Amino acid sequence: MSLIVVTEFMDERAVQRLRAAHEVVYDPVLVDEAARLHAEAARADALIVRNRTQVRGELLAALGRCRVVGRLGVGLDNIDLPGCRARGIRVIPAAGANAQSVAEYVVTVALVLMRGVYASTPEVAAGGWPRAALSAGHEAAGRTLGLIGFGTIGQATARLARALGMKVIAFDAMMDADHPAFADGSVASAGLDEVVQTADVVSLHVPLVEETRGMFDAARLESMKPGAVLVDTARGGIVDEPALADALRRGHLGGAAVDVFATEPLPPSPHFQGCPNLILTPHVAGVTAESNERVSELIAARVLEALAEPGA
């Protein structure tokens, strides 16, 4: 019997599946208790994490027995992949399991920001009637959604947007116009500058690597179409946060929704305080009741398979 350590929240049914086969230490706040986390990691044959657990440095060094790290999500920037490979540790992401949740988030916040009417409840309830001021919002139909990154999540987002009558264009550094993802012609392959400069809504779906760090700096934000909306569900560090706030305050951008930040949890940020047309959420675009079940079940199954392999 092996020991599986789960450092952040996981669907209870998936935890019970793990417990039926192995010893399990499950504590959703273990990530916040470094000393105990490192002690449990030293005994672990498998480690299951979300994005807050940094599998690098002291924690990685503590994984003397570990053979597999399951990631309850798809981003791997919190895991030292070369370090894991050097130690013979297999890393398993939950690829595709939260794509629908992220896609729905992207389309929902884009609709909210383009329409611009859904923050009126306090004023209307107090007897105000800002009908004229809130009558200049935009429909999604006929607008262009630009995707930066066209993997599983980007493609799911494209399907939902097209159902609303949006035109969709996409840039992916790993795909040319002949890639099968563009074969049906429903989404046009475009260059990065074309997507940024022409889309009414730009949505980011790229990992945080050296090539994408700071990709949306002040200059690139300024090159976006005036009045456009930016949605970032990718990773913190891709968008320059103070520059984004400045673009919103100046009215260059029509709105933004940010679910990921350079530092998480986000510390008090003066540049975001009172910023107009801004939706901030705490890294939950891919987390719904349904996606948590799918992600957890997938990782539980894959970790159990890995531990059952000869030599594991």
Please give the structural blueprint:
Layout: E1 3-6, H1 12-19, E2 23-26, H2 34-43, E3 46-49, H3 57-62, E4 68-71, H4 81-86, E5 90-93, H5 99-115, H6 121-125, E6 144-148, H7 152-163, E7 167-171, E8 188-189, H8 192-198, E9 201-204, H9 218-223, E10 229-232, H10 241-249, E11 255-258, E12 278-280, H11 289-308
Parallel strand pairs: 1-2, 1-3, 3-4, 4-5, 6-7, 6-9, 7-8, 9-10, 10-11, 11-12
Count of DSSP E strands?
12
Q: What is the architecture of the largest domain at the second tier of CATH? A: 3-Layer(aba) Sandwich
Shape: globular
Give the CATH level 1 class of the largest domain. Answer: Alpha Beta
Whole-number mean pLDDT: 97
Structural domains: how many = 2
- Gyration radius, rounded: 21 Å
Helix content: 25-40%
Indicate the low-confidence ranges by residue numbers: none
Alpha-beta content class:
alpha/beta
The string of secondary-structure elements, in order, is EHEHEHEHEHHEHEEHEHEHEEH
Within CATH, the superfamily of the largest domain carries the name: NAD(P)-binding Rossmann-like Domain
Across the major sheet, the strand order is 8-7-6-9-10-11-12
What can you see in these coordinates?
- The chain is an alpha/beta fold.
- The protein has helices spanning 12-19, 34-43, 57-62, 81-86, 99-115, 121-125, 152-163, 192-198, 218-223, 241-249, 289-308; strands at residues 3-6, 23-26, 46-49, 68-71, 90-93, 144-148, 167-171, 188-189, 201-204, 229-232, 255-258, 278-280.
- The protein has two domains: 3-97 and 290-308, Rossmann fold; 99-280, Rossmann fold (3-Layer(aba) Sandwich), CATH 3.40.50.720.
- It is built from eleven helices and twelve strands.
- Helix 1 (12-19) packs parallel to helix 11 (289-308) and helix 5 (99-115) crosses helix 7 (152-163).
